[in-house]
Amino acid sequence: MFYEPKKNNHNLTHDPFKSCVIPRPIAWISTMSLDGIPNLAPYSQFQNLTFDPPYVMFAANQTTDGRRKDTVVNVEQSGEFVYNMATYDLREAVNLSAQQVSPEVDEFELAGVTKAPSRLVKTPRVAESPVHFECLYYQTLRLPGNSPMSAVDIVIGKVIGIHIKDDFITSDGKIDILEIRPIARLGYYDYTVVESVFEMVIPGPDEKLRAGMEGKRYKDCP
Ligand SMILES: Cc1cc2nc3c(=O)[nH]c(=O)nc-3n(C[C@H](O)[C@H](O)[C@H](O)COP(=O)(O)O)c2cc1C
Predict the structure, then answer these.
(1) In this structure, how many other beta carbons lie within 10 angstroms of the beta carbon of residue 135?
(2) What number does the ligand 1 atom closest to the CA of 58 have?
(3) How does residue 205 score in pLDDT terms, banded at 50, 70 and 90?
(4) Among candidates 107, 113, 109, 98, which has minimal Cα distance to 189?
């Protein structure tokens, strides 16, 4: 089949687009309003952009009534946010925090999760999550949409602090992904969970390329 998004002529019962770029990691973003109210929401339009220094981005569409999402307002006003990794054990809390509620609601309470203090930013972390990035706001790129809801704020942040729970670090110094069981979006109401890992090494003579892929420390690089 072939269709043009502009015409939306796919003739399927559901728009397939969001199921064509999968699995999408879920950034469970915590922020704080200027009034000090903590906010929490999942964003699967999320990625790391680079690693030295690390930057991440998430893309927030508008609310169903065409307003900017609380997360974006808070990030821009406070200059910071925290990425919390979403896991299978936390899936129901992640889902609860996706409800569109008033900015006065403490969404940690709504989701039933615990606040843990951050080290370098004021925004709290989700204590139950195994991995957190403390981020400083860098920039918003706004793309126009075809409807009030589909305009999007692409928020970029610089990662200045990274927490990884010691329980999830293996004896050979890697993150134990299979123990963590991160979840990811597949479009529709569908999700996946990381339950298997396989390894592939780039062939050829370029040791530096391989070392970069593997994430070797610079002092160990050839
Ligand atoms: C798993 C999951 C992923 C989501 N990803 C996004 C996303 O990438 N962009 C977006 O605008 N909304 C996304 N949403 C919806 C937001 O979480 C929802 O609009 C939320 O109410 C926003 O909260 P806020 O206004 O406190 O920022 C997602 C929802 C779920 C359950």
Answers:
(1) 31
(2) 8
(3) confident
(4) 98
pTM of the model: 0.96
Q: Which residues contact 127 (CB under 8 A, 6 or more apart)?
A: 113, 114, 115, 116
Please report which confidence band the pLDDT of residue 171 belongs to, taking 50, 70 and 90 as the band edges: very high
Q: How far, in Å, CA of 189 to CA of 20, rounded? A: 14
Structure tokens at 51: 């690693």
Report DSSP state, residue 168. Answer: G
First to last CA, the chain: 48
Q: Nearest residue CA, atom 2 of ligand 1?
A: 42
pLDDT in tens, 30-48: 999 999 999 999 999 999 9
Please state, in angstroms and rounded to a whole number, the distance separating the CA atoms of residues 180 and 194.
9
**Half-sphere exposure (CA, 13 Å, Cβ side) for 124?**
18
- If one residue of 44, 107, 149 were mutated to test the ligand 1 pocket, choosing by the most ligand atoms within 8 A of its CB, it would be 44
Ligand 1 atom 17: the closest Cα is on which residue? 98
Nearest CA to ligand 1 atom 15: 98
Q: What percent of the chain has pLDDT over 90?
A: 90
Which protein residues are within 6 Å of ligand 1, measured from CB? Answer: 26, 39, 41-45, 59-61, 69-71, 95, 98-100, 185
